[in-house]
Amino acid sequence: MLCVATDIKIVTDWSPESLTLPSLSLSSHGPIAYIAYIQEEVVCFGFRLEMAAPTFNIVVSFLSLCRQIQFADQKQEFNKRPTKIGRRSLSRSISQSSTDSYSSAASYTDSSDDETSPRDKQQKNSKGNGDFCIKNIKQADFGRREIEIAEQEMPALMALRKRAQGEKPLAGAKVVGCTHITAQTAVLMETLSALGAQCRWAACNIYSTQNEVAAALAEGGFSVFAWKGESEDDFWWCIDRCVNLEGWQPNMILDDGGDLTHWIYKKYPNMFKKIKGIVEESVTGVHRLYQLSKAGKLCVPAMNVNDSVTKQKFDNLYCCRESILDGLKRTTDVMFGGKQVVVCGYGEVGKGCCAALKAMGSIVYVTEIDPISHCPIMDGFRLVKLNEVIRQVDIVITCTGNKNVVVREYLDRMKNGCIVCNMGHSNTEIDVASLRTPELTWERVRSQVDHVIWPDGKRIVLLAEGRLLNLSCSTVPTFVLSITATTQALALIELYNAPEGRYKQDVYLLPKKMDEYVASLHLPTFDAHLTELSDEQAKYLGLNKNGPFKPNYYRLRTSSDQFNTT
């Protein structure tokens, strides 16, 4: 039987500031929400309870006992949970305040395997196949659920799979791919397989792989070589394992950034004799293709899907408009209102970043080289040189696709606490190598977040070591990747099935008819209905009433233009 003393007075006119003596605070998530006691006072549920010393001792003992019972109940409840799915990482089980708790890159990782390189482990899937190298095959069930979720938000790709799998337009295709390995990429890979292709895959970014998704793909029979947190040596090793397999030679390349194309060109140039084409989706990769073409070294036709209108609008503009905030919030918990931000580059990625930050109340500056095409002034942003604002801004974001945009000189002049990140594909925009010197100290704060500390105590916050922020530190909208993945699939089908002579050894845009087809596949999701031209209207405009409605040269911008810089 519990007896509670009655000499307790509830005082409501108090504030935490009125408690001037040292206090002990205990917090939990159950009935005892907040407890602080000072001498003969107990604060509970936002009320201060005044009592005599004996009663005080009874109440404090009672509250402490309640708290112990509550934690015991929580532990018992935790032990009742199913264990066959494996143990989640500590940060995901207990707290969701860190990047690893939320990020797409934060896999359900068994911590016992964290110290062992996948290259040193022999793993096989349930069918005995071991032609893969991933973090942990046991995570396959988690990855399969994420893939199933992604399928719900990728209507065009699923529609393409349903319509074309009977025809098998990629029968005989051997596709080697190097992209971000996420749940959305898995839907693409399984679609290519359903259309008849064989696939081998590596990651184009050392931080963006979802380990559980890679496990699900390996369990499904795909040859995947990727894990989150690869070293530079691991990165190239994985690409080589994809390409260099006795008795198997690719005849199609799907690349994101150009590293796979570069590796084959450098190590296995004879492979291009059997390769029918390259599909490239990034600004950086397309730029490298145009360089090869200009030098007369491009051996096969290449399709530039980056400059497809749908891809530019959705993947580059709308996607980055959402994911820039997501990546910054998850890594730094920063409040955007009132912050001064400089965005380097005002292409579609830069436009998306600027629009999102402006909407959140940030003061946004833009650097750009093009005086006409991407002028930010008419959108309400101030056009500056980086050296004019580098001392005062709170956040620096690069999205140019260029190199050495933020060099050591600018890093030295930044204010204390400045956040530095990159939204471009490559890690060449921020001169991170210049920061790895003896006089500077690197301090890991959390996953993908580092403090770089100068001798005088000044520090900057560097995200993802200068690599792509959104896919390294957060997620991107699945619906957006449905646009990109469907465009990639159609480009592969087009190049693989094109009659000889249609495409020469050059870089081509995806035909506008296909671009419009990708967009039309997504309209039913919004219950959207297009207006149809009458015969008279179509004749007046000089168009086919069924499209294409834009000339093939039409695009929002071109990756072959000069790149943005400061």
From TrEMBL:
The lineage of its organism: Eukaryota, Metazoa, Chordata, Craniata, Vertebrata. Its cofactor is NAD(+). InterPro entries: Adenosylhomocyst_ase-like_sf, Adenosylhomocysteinase-like, Ado_hCys_hydrolase_NAD-bd, NAD(P)-bd_dom_sf, S-Ado-L-homoCys_hydrolase_CS. This is S-adenosyl-L-homocysteine hydrolase NAD binding domain-containing protein. The keyword Ribosomal protein does not apply. Residues 91-110 have a biased composition (Low complexity). One of its GO terms (cellular component) is cytosol. Residues 82-132 are annotated as: Disordered. Keywords: NAD, One-carbon metabolism. One of its GO terms (biological process) is S-adenosylmethionine cycle. Gene3D superfamilies: Adenosylhomocysteinase-like (3.40.50.1480), NAD(P)-binding Rossmann-like Domain (3.40.50.720). CDD domains: SAHH (cd00401). NCBIfam families: ahcY, PRK05476.2-3. The keyword DNA-binding does not apply. Belongs to the adenosylhomocysteinase family. SUPFAM superfamilies: Formate/glycerate dehydrogenase catalytic domain-like, NAD(P)-binding Rossmann-fold domains. Pfam families: AdoHcyase (PF05221), AdoHcyase_NAD (PF00670). Residues 316-476 form the S-adenosyl-L-homocysteine hydrolase NAD binding domain.
